[in-house]
Amino acid sequence: DAGITQSPRHKVTETGTPVTLRCHQTENHRYMYWYRQDPGHGLRLIHYSYGVKDTDKGEVSDGYSVSRSKTEDFLLTLESATSSQTSVYFCAISESGYANTGELFFGEGSRLTVL
Amino acid sequence: RKEVEQDPGPFNVPEGATVAFNCTYSNSASQSFFWYRQDCRKEPKLLMSVYSSGNEDGRFTAQLNRASQYISLLIRDSKLSDSATYLCVVTLTDSWGKLQFGAGTQVVVTP
């Protein structure tokens, strides 16, 4: 299995508080992604990174920010959590841009509940 | 309309039987197609790519129908371990080729 670690794996927080999810990889892959998964929806891309300090928005980026200061770490921050951000968050990595192979390696997910 | 649509199921399949299900996509210029598998409360994992001519991987067969804009997955001789949600994935045609995920089809294989 690809070396991807997400933390925390479970978190319950209150509306209005900041939350940071961490993704750590040991594969030295260039590309990293944050997705959210909700019932009835496919995985939706929040933000992605194509290198250190190089990030861009996905389709559901409002309310989220990211940072990548090292190849191995990609942080997702919810500046002020809302109940609509209750979800399962998956980090993923790929060696090349996934348009080439379609293969993403996912972390185990972080389950976030915002009360 | 969603870019990628799947029947959520569940498809209840007796062990040893065959099950097939489709996924439709709306963008006729979609380039590449994949099936991912996701076990309950686990992360998705790539099952197989879908090639224009169709392809097999053991008991799994994937087909692409560009004219009708759907892909299919067929599972033969179903095993209990095939119980999972199968995600259809399509790459769109913008310069970055982002992956578009369907919401998944649940398959439950029963003894």
Describe this structure in words.
- The complex is a heterodimer of chains A (115) and B (111).
- Chain A is an all-beta fold and 115 residues long.
- The mean pLDDT of chain A is 92.
- The relative contact order of chain A is 0.32.
- Chain A contains no helices and 11 strands.
- In chain A, strands 2, 4, 5, 6, 9, 10 and 11 form a 7-stranded mixed sheet that branches.
- Chain B has 111 residues and is mostly beta strands.
- The termini of chain B are far apart.
- The A-B interface holds A 40-45, 58-59, 90, 97-104, 106-109 and B 2, 4, 8, 31-34, 41-46, 49, 87, 89, 91, 96-104.
What's this entry about, in short?
Chain A is mostly beta strands. Chain A has no helices and eleven strands. In chain A, a hairpin with a 2-residue loop joins strand 7 (64-70) and strand 8 (73-78).
How much helix, percentage-wise, in residues of chain A? Answer: under 10%
Could you tell me the radius of gyration of chain A in angstroms? 13 Å
For the record, give the distance between the C-alpha atoms at the N and C termini of chain A, rounded to a whole number.
Answer: 34 Å
Work out the strand percent of chain B.
Answer: over 45%
**How far is it from the N-terminal to the C-terminal residue of chain B, by CA?**
37 Å
Radius of gyration of chain B: 14 Å
Strand content of chain A: over 45%
Helix content of chain B: under 10%
Shape of chain B: globular
Order of helices and strands of chain A: EEEEEEEEEEE
Series of H and E elements of chain B: EEEEEEEEEEE
Mean pLDDT of chain B: 92
Structural class of chain A: mainly beta
Major sheet of chain A, described briefly?
Answer: 7 strands, mixed
What oligomeric state do these chains adopt?
Answer: heterodimer
Number of strands of chain A: 11
Total helices of chain A: the number is: 0
What is the largest interface, and how many residues per chain?
A-B, 21 and 26 residues
Question: What would you call the structural class of chain B?
Answer: mainly beta
The overall strand count of chain B is 11
How is the biggest beta sheet of chain B arranged?
6 strands, mixed
